[in-house]
Amino acid sequence: MISAPRGVKSLLYEEAVLKERIERKALALFHSHGYARVETPAMEFLHVLSKGLTADSLKKVITFSDPAGGGKPLALRSDITPQIARIAATTLASRPFPIRLCYAESVFRSHTPGTVGKMEIYQAGAELLGVSSPEADAEIISLAIESLLRMGFPSAQMAISHVGYIESTMDELNLDESHRVEIRRALGKKDGSALAGALDRAKAGGPAREAILRAPSLFGNPSVLADAATVNAGARAAVDNLLEITEDISRYGLLEKVIIDMGETRGMDYYTGVTFEGFVKGLSSRALSGGRYDKLLSLYGADIPATGFAIGIDVILDHLYRTGEPSNWASADALVTCSKGAERKAVEFAAKLRDRGMRVLRCLRCLTSDEAVNYAKSVKVGAVAAVGAEDVSAGHIRIINVKTGTERIVTEEEALARPIESLS
Amino acid sequence: MSAQITVALPKGRNLKPAVQLFAAVGLDFTEALSDSRRLIFTAKSGMGKAIVVRDTDIPTYVENGAADMGVSGSDVLTEQGKDMFEPLDLKFGYCRMMVAEPKELSEKDNPKEWTHIRVATKFPNITEAHFAGRGVQIEIVKLYGSIELAPLVGLSERIVDLVSTGETLRMNGLVEVEKIMDITARLVVNRASLKTRHEVMSRIIREMDAVLPSLNLS
């Protein structure tokens, strides 16, 4: 059977153009804030990529080998951030900070059969390296919000949490990792009874237990931070950090787009500070995610703080493609066809149209009007221009609007003077 | 997405308590109890709509946002491991996930000495995780119903299944030998719905939590 593997697909026509448009909007915004484009390689050495991945993410890495490469296993990139960490730590570390980088690329992850999942995931993102201040996080979060707004989602909502809050509170209880995992999982599901059970099994008591139990209710606009219980310096620092970050976000005028969710523990992987997820109405999964990762670069040899995010271009593309307005998208503006003997005229006319910025196909053999319209329809071309037809007087061209079927005879000058779709 | 809340309700024994629960927070879908052919119901208040689906399909609807929230048994949630919030234990729909075997076998059997067993079940993931945690190797026979039959016809020696009163097991000469977990119904909520509509969704969850003890659902 000739088919593509599950979880990958080809994009054609409108969908490919829509993806390009979404990526361009993101990149244009990033560029306008001074983020420079980086293109990472599609593959890495597995042992290098895996430095920056948790055991769970590592399970999804697609590996293979290069027959000429000496046998070291290779991996398709499953996450751009560890690649940027590697690049920054090895080749950019001597440059002055901050360094601002952005990208639009695919990552590849093995997915569980039977779930709604993809193997090739399109992402676009921005990373701000070398600064640990709250202003850096506020810049990144504001950029993340702005990117969703630019893509046409006025409902964009950024849910912000902080790794340090729960982790420091758990430090206070001297919990071992297995109990921490259980508590994080219950928090991740906002499952109050499972959380209480996990704390019981961990024999956790006192103010730290109460703080963890109350974390899921620290959910809503940033004023909920005032209710946060801070049992030690780490938890206090996390709350103070969020207060500073949200204050700086308010300077961008974007604070109303922010909600605090202190109970969120999902996707903490390499994150060490603030974490965030972006949501838009109508999209059932998160549209973007990111956070501060101050330890990741040290795994690649340079102790550099960093913060950043990745937008799920694939989920946004799917959503806009399914729910967007029916587009008048055309692969080209005109198909120029001709009668026998008028080939030169047709080629010259097509060239003149292109000079005026139009996208023009030349018919490679003579077609009847009907044939030309049918072909134009199938490849999504807006209009047919027939040159040298016998029933049309010399110097005139028949213009047919492919969508409506209406046609008009105009002089060559008229045809060149106006956009071709307005002629028919 | 409309301003309405979409709720996924499970067919079967948890439908009635689920309907009572939503009615108590202003979403009245009592029509769903009398009309078993319709699949979509609108709340009398107009504030929401309900879809009635198989209990094993509830997590799929909620995870993918086809419903904002739903009611699902913790057996189904654990088995499927889908990604969503599970903010409330609704306490109704109680039963137990048990390992059972024929009475004759149990008389000379010591579960602590198991090293390799064959198990028939509707819940392969739960079964595998349970025995992996105990260091017992297992061979799973996946069935879709009438699990009790498997030991009687030699398909497996043991089964893992839900037990409520224990009557079905007894009628088939089986006894419970090990409890894996207690099962109750849970409120499940789509992640994006809770975050993008946090005020209305949080209010419903808070009200349910407050009203649950007085409803006495079973």
How large is the radius of gyration of chain A? 28 Å
Most extensive protein-chain contact, per-chain counts: A-B, 24 and 24 residues
Strand content of chain A: 15-25%
| Number of beta-strand segments of chain B | 11
Report the order of strands and helices of chain B: EHHEEHEHEEHEHEHEHEEHH
Largest sheet of chain B: 6 strands, mixed
What is the overall silhouette of chain A?
elongated
Provide the residue-averaged pLDDT of chain A.
92
Strands of the widest sheet of chain A, in order across it, are: 1-5-6-12-11-10-7-9-8
The biggest beta sheet of chain A is recorded as: 9 strands, mixed
Assign a percent range to the helix content of chain A: 25-40%
Q: Helix fraction of chain B?
A: 25-40%
Q: Low-confidence parts of chain B, pLDDT < 50 over ≥5 residues? A: none
CATH architectural group of the largest domain in chain B: 3-Layer(aba) Sandwich
Short description:
The complex is a heterodimer of chains A (424) and B (218). By secondary structure, chain A is α+β, with helices and mostly antiparallel strands.
What would you say this structure looks like, in words?
- The complex is a heterodimer of chains A (424) and B (218).
- By secondary structure, chain A is α+β, with helices and mostly antiparallel strands.
- Chain A has 14 helices and 17 strands.
- In chain A, strands 1-5-6-12-11-10-7-9-8 form a nine-stranded mixed beta sheet, sandwiched between helices. In chain A, strands 14-13-15-16-17 form a five-stranded mixed beta sheet, sandwiched between helices. Chain A has a three-stranded antiparallel beta sheet with strand order 2-4-3.
- In chain A, strand 16 and strand 17 form a beta hairpin.
- The mean pLDDT of chain A is 92.
- Chain B has helices at residues 15-24, 31-34, 58-63, 74-80, 103-107, 124-134, 149-152, 167-171, 191-196, 198-215; strands at residues 5-10, 40-42, 48-53, 69-73, 85-89, 95-102, 116-121, 137-142, 158-163, 174-183, 185-189.
- Chain B starts with a strand and ends with a helix.
- The model of chain B has no long low-confidence stretch (mean pLDDT 93).
- Chain B has 218 residues and is an alpha/beta fold.
- Chain B has two domains: 5-93 and 184-214, 3-Layer(aba) Sandwich (D-Maltodextrin-Binding Protein, domain 2), CATH 3.40.190.10; 95-182, Periplasmic binding protein-like II (D-Maltodextrin-Binding Protein, domain 2).
- In chain B, 35% of the residues lie in helices and 30% in strands.
- Chain B is built from ten helices and eleven strands.
- In chain B, the strands form two sheets. Chain B has a six-stranded mixed beta sheet.
- At the A-B interface, helix 8 and strand 8 of A face strand 5, helix 9 and helix 10 of B.
